[in-house]
Amino acid sequence: TWRFELSEPSVREANEQRVRYLVYMPVVNYESDVIEARFGLPAEIIKTHEQLSWWLYPEKGLIIMQDQQGGDVFYYSAPSDYAALKERAKASLPNE
């Protein structure tokens, strides 16, 4: 249990920064039907491997990386920042 303490000027500077992206790695692995029930049909699904797919929701500012083996990851941004979020996600795709 270690905690990094920021100096007061660093805290003020951090509080003035805008959060552009949020990454959430849930403990629970979500099945496709649960994701669809919660978020609706995605605008696009990119399947990169037999067990790995990316669900794209530009209107929600959301990309879900679904891994059938576990380890789903949710990437959030403001809808206005979605294009940049998608580019970041595409950069991590194999053969892209």
Describe the structure.
With 96 residues, the protein is an alpha+beta fold. The chain contains 3 helices and 5 strands. It starts with 7 loop residues before the first helix and ends in a 5-residue tail after the last helix.
SSE layout and pairings?
Blueprint: H1 8-16, E1 21-24, H2 32-39, E2 44-47, E3 52-57, E4 62-67, E5 73-77, H3 82-91
Antiparallel strand pairs: 1-5, 2-3, 3-4, 4-5
Q: Evaluate the radius of gyration.
A: 16 Å
Largest sheet: 5 strands, antiparallel
As a percent range, the share of strand residues is 25-35%
Strand order of the largest sheet: 1-5-4-3-2
SS elements, strand count: 5
Count up the helices.
Answer: 3
Uncertain segments are: none
Structural class: alpha+beta
Give the termini separation. 39 Å
Mean pLDDT: 89
Q: Report the principal-axis shape.
A: globular
Q: H/E series, N to C?
A: HEHEEEEH
The amount of helix comes to 25-40%
